[in-house]
Amino acid sequence: MGDLLSRAEHYRKQAETYHELAKFAEPAYLGDFYRGVAVRYVFMSQELSKQAEKDVGSAMEPPPVVANDDEPPTHLSQDLDLLAVWAGERSRSGEPK
């Protein structure tokens, strides 16, 4: 399971890297390509995280989710934020989703 989680974290970092590259890429089509790669990494990371959770089984219950501004956001919310930003940038540029 540890290997799955470390790979998932690696994919999250790669998604962040490609998302940053997309912000400043020239020409514009290269930015779209980088954003697409970032989204793929996010999905790969989510799949590995889900697989790791399945491996653990139902013996462990997840901790309750408590909203607290002092705590850093969870990986899932970061992943969803990344996808939302990517989708928002595409819709502003007038490109189909």
Q: What's the layout of helices and strands?
A:
Blueprint: H1 2-24, H2 28-56, H3 75-92
Can you offer a commentary on this structure?
With 97 residues, this protein is mainly alpha-helical. It is 72% helix and 0% strand. The chain has helices at 2-24, 28-56, 75-92. The relative contact order is 0.16.
Task: Describe the structure concisely.
It is built from three helices and no strands.
Number of helices: 3
Helix/strand order, N-terminal first? HHH
Q: Helicity range of the residues?
A: over 70%
Q: What structural class should be given to the helix and strand makeup? A: mainly alpha
* Oligomeric state, counting identical vs distinct chains: single chain
User: Describe the biggest sheet?
Assistant: none
Overall shape: elongated
Radius of gyration, taken over Cα atoms and rounded to an integer in Å? 16 Å
Low-confidence stretches: none
Q: What fraction of the residues are assigned to beta strands by DSSP?
A: under 5%
| Integer tally of domains | 1
Distance between the termini: 35 Å
